[in-house]
Specification:
With 286 residues, the chain is an all-alpha fold. The chain has helices at residues 3-34, 50-56, 59-91, 97-104, 106-109, 112-123, 129-136, 148-176, 180-188, 193-204, 206-221, 225-230, 242-251, 256-285. Helix 3 (59-91) runs antiparallel to helix 11 (206-221) and helix 13 (242-251) packs antiparallel against helix 14.
Length: 286
């Protein structure tokens, strides 16, 4: 190793050691808990991989896993589609686009508790604005957070609404790096707007797009407050994600071993997704 490399390694070592020390103990303790049948105050007897095998045969786990999958897919792709559309719109000569850019960041800037409380007020009760609007349009009594399908749709919409500003900023930054002369050459060759978007814009912003997908997938899978504050995982566990399911197991059912095992399984799947997307980033870089 060169002298420069040794110097950089020595400078990074204190920070790396500190990060390892801070994260190592919780990780090791969680792994120990996942292989024991204990309580919040005691480790309990050793059960090996029983918690993991029980999770894989638990219908509640798979129901939460299916919802987490849909929540992540819609959260990632929905927020990306809306964010990219807003970034493309703000890139054009729209009057007052600086003001719109700030206003469009509000869903991401406003604290989650305030946003969830506002959406709860809009849709939760019989006299809330959205159920009242549905009745006036002739749809009858529509309780958006009491029906399993409508509750899931409301959670999906809330996630997209709160996450698209992040995608808008990442897409906007990627679009700024695209050379305008490429579009001019494409127009000269007779390419339509859709052809320019499909064959120029999307390939040239592929790397930032995949990176934003990885980050948003992590945000969605680990998103506890969105679901817990809006629906609490109900009704009838219809909006129960894996992170909420794990929380309930640990802090409500007092099964920390099983709950932590669920969290480890969730982390393993998320790691596989991240590896797949990182490979796509490498391909896009070629």
């Amino acid at each position: 190793m060169s002298k420069r490399g040794l110097t950089m390694g020595a400078m990074l070592a204190p920070s790396l050691i500190l990060i390892v020390l801070i994260n190592a103990y919780p990780l090791v303790y969680a792994a120990i808990q996942a292989t024991h049948d204990g309580t919040l105050t005691s480790t309990g007897p050793y059960v090996g991989w029983d918690n993991f095998s029980f999770a894989l045969s638990d219908p509640g786990f798979w129901k939460a896993a299916r919802f987490t999958l849909w929540f992540t897919l819609i959260g990632v792709l929905g927020s990306w589609a809306v964010g990219l559309a807003m970034a493309l719109l703000l890139r054009s000569n729209v009057p007052g686009r600086s003001v719109f850019r700030v206003l469009l960041l509000l869903p991401w800037v406003v604290p989650m508790v305030v946003s969830a409380t506002s959406w709860n007020w809009l849709a939760n009760t019989h006299d809330s604005p959205l159920p009242s609007l549905a009745r006036s349009l002739g749809f009858g009594d529509v309780l958006f957070l009491a029906d399993p399908t409508l509750a899931a749709a409301t959670v999906f919409a809330f996630k997209v609404w709160g996450a698209f500003p992040f995608m808008m900023m990442t897409s906007g930054a990627a679009l700024e790096a695209v050379d305008h002369t490429v579009y001019e050459a494409a127009r000269v060759d007779g390419a339509s707007g859709w052809q320019q978007f499909r064959h120029i814009t999307l390939p040239l912003i592929a790397r930032p797009t995949y990176i934003s997908w990885i980050l948003m997938a992590i945000f969605c899978v680990n998103d506890f407050p969105t679901i817990f504050l809006l629906t609490g995982g109900g009704p009838s566990d219809a909006t129960n994600s894996l992170v909420v399911y794990s929380y309930r197991l640990v802090f409500q059912n007092f099964q920390p071993g099983y709950g932590i095992a669920v969290a480890f399984l969730m982390t393993a799947v998320l790691s596989v997704v991240a590896v797949v997307l990182f490979r796509q980033i490498r391909r896009a870089a070629r």
